[in-house]
Amino acid sequence: MVLSEAKEHCVKLGRLCRGVTCEAASNCSAMTGHQVLNQSATSYTKLCVFFGDETFKSSTLHAASQDVPSSDVAIVVLAHNRKNDLSICLDSLLRLPDAKLFQVYVSLDDDSAYSEMQEAVINISGHYGQEIGVWFVKPRAVNFAVDNGEQQKWFKTSTGKIAHHYWSAFERVFMKQQHDAAIFLEEDLVVAPDFLALFRSTAWVLAEDPSVWCVSAWNDGGFAFAVSDQCRLFRTTYFPGLGFLLQRKVWIRLREEWPSAPTMGWDYWMRTAFRRADKECIIPEVPRSRHESRKGSSIVTRKQVEYFELMALSQQSSSCDGTRPCNHFGNIDYLLKDTYEFWMHSALHKAERMTGSSHLFQSGQECTSEAINLGHLATPEDCAALVGLGECSEYFGFARQYPYWGCRCCRFGKKIGKEHPGKAWSIYRASLTGDPGKTYVFPYTFENYMSIAPSFGLQPEGMANLVPPDVRAEHYGLVVGKHLTSQAVVLLVDKRSPKPYLPVDEQLSPDPRLMPMAGAKGQSCDEVCQQRRMSCSAEQLHFLNNCINMTAHFGCKFCAHQSGAELPAYVADDFEPTVGQCLVTFISQLQCNTKHPSTRRLCPCMAQTA
């Protein structure tokens, strides 16, 4: 076909086409996979022009005045003592054609490695002819009048040192250097060819939409086996880190709320801060940054290395240079808050409910060998939508009388089922479900998310314990996934989402009878509620597990994430490293009968029914 026909065909193919190759003027074809260059063919790379519903298509793109003002935007690479990693990181960054638009700094925090790290910076700087500023971050100074003994111990941990390094880098680039915005990288990251194009193309969104606080190159759900559209961008309420742009005006607000000891890490504290302020980040479907190192503070095992090797990295060439405005992702008006919400509601309204089909295979039998527990699901049809992946066969066990036992996927074998003593279990066989040309919706709860995530490409199979079990890359509980057995796009929606994404009969909402009660130090919620002749509801705890409710009842200035069975809680004892903090959790199961001698719990008390 001729070039014009091939281009039109490529657009119709959507994410399946990356561009057009022509052997001759009348012999052109659409390309899939990575772009291959050769001397006998001319290639035309597909640009990111439009996205989303037809309603939002427009030929109007934002003007050059809304590009990144390069003189006011810095790039800061935080590094410790890995000389080779730093060289690789800087090389991947400075080879980008628009890198010279930015002032680049390297922030070092290891005095013993300073000379060799500085040497690596000088060598890269000379190779690319670009000046790189270097500064040194001294260890955190202890204020003995304020910092208790446990906080002083925490300052010396890896988590404490990294948090201090980020604090110092934020202070240096925003408060001393007075940059309006900065992109932050770590020494073990490499960046994609269009890494800087992401920040330049989205700069106007941060300027126009106060609900957006950052842009990140990282997507926690960006596994290579599940993502494909290099042009698609999302909004997320889950701060991602790992190559992100932050504005000075945001830091001026955050620095007033930063606690002395964010013991679960600076990045988890940022997540609570963003949610407390109801702010979001923009992220790409396909990541523009990636861990390259095989060791680090959070990568210590071979299995963790394998986990991050599964993440995608965009191979899209940048359409931007240093002389013209950058609109690499085309029309991204859909990222504005109101438009994005309208698009989400529209997509959910059109989506079909993801259910499978199954038939009874063996009554009164359970799996001979169980591959995985897929969690609490209401019906065999819900189970059928999740099976058939990896060691999980199309056969599964389900007990209709006891759905809370979970959906148990059977491992492949000569004999699928064996007799169950109580005859409660039965084996079902699932049929193929899902149309790759459609979009589906699948409601979930936090409690069963990690069980179902592998079926939707949001967690590699068999790697559930390598990262904390929180719901990542989500937008108010909505996560975009891919049903791996059918390749259909699925919108997973938290039943407790604060947004009305689901029909009323499928939402889980605060009970009108809920009465939040602040307990005394060392009390469990069962005890707090019983004192008032009420009962504690573990289900209702989910609606109190946020900084806004905690601050309203305890008046805490600081709020942070923590793990533990006695959350959410306020830390009252002054010898604790987290003293004065309200603690919420993204990962722990919530319980009524738990307590801690140093904390006060916020409890969901309910009037007892007669």
Automatic annotation (TrEMBL):
Membrane topology classification: Single-pass type II membrane protein
Any Pfam family the entry gives: GNT-I
Reaction equations catalysed: N(4)-(alpha-D-Man-(1->3)-[alpha-D-Man-(1->3)-[alpha-D-Man-(1->6)]-alpha-D-Man-(1->6)]-beta-D-Man-(1->4)-beta-D-GlcNAc-(1->4)-beta-D-GlcNAc)-L-asparaginyl-[protein] (N-glucan mannose isomer 5A1,2) + UDP-N-acetyl-alpha-D-glucosamine = N(4)-{beta-D-GlcNAc-(1->2)-alpha-D-Man-(1->3)-[alpha-D-Man-(1->3)-[alpha-D-Man-(1->6)]-alpha-D-Man-(1->6)]-beta-D-Man-(1->4)-beta-D-GlcNAc-(1->4)-beta-D-GlcNAc}-L-asparaginyl-[protein] + UDP + H(+)
EC number in record: 2.4.1.101
Keyword Transferase: yes
PANTHER family per UniProt: ALPHA-1,3-MANNOSYL-GLYCOPROTEIN 2-BETA-N-ACETYLGLUCOSAMINYLTRANSFERASE, PROTEIN O-LINKED-MANNOSE BETA-1,2-N-ACETYLGLUCOSAMINYLTRANSFERASE 1/ALPHA-1,3-MANNOSYL-GLYCOPROTEIN 2-BETA-N-ACETYLGLUCOSAMINYLTRANSFERASE
Pathway info: Protein modification; protein glycosylation
Source superkingdom: Eukaryota
UniProt entry keywords in alphabetical sequence: Glycosyltransferase, Golgi apparatus, Manganese, Membrane, Metal-binding, Signal-anchor, Transferase, Transmembrane, Transmembrane helix
Species assigned in the record: Durusdinium trenchii
InterPro entries: Glyco_trans_13, Glycosyltransferase_13, Nucleotide-diphossugar_trans
Cofactor: Mn(2+)
Subcellular location as annotated: Golgi apparatus membrane
Predominant location category: Golgi
Family label: Belongs to the glycosyltransferase 13 family.
Protein's UniProt name: alpha-1,3-mannosyl-glycoprotein 2-beta-N-acetylglucosaminyltransferase
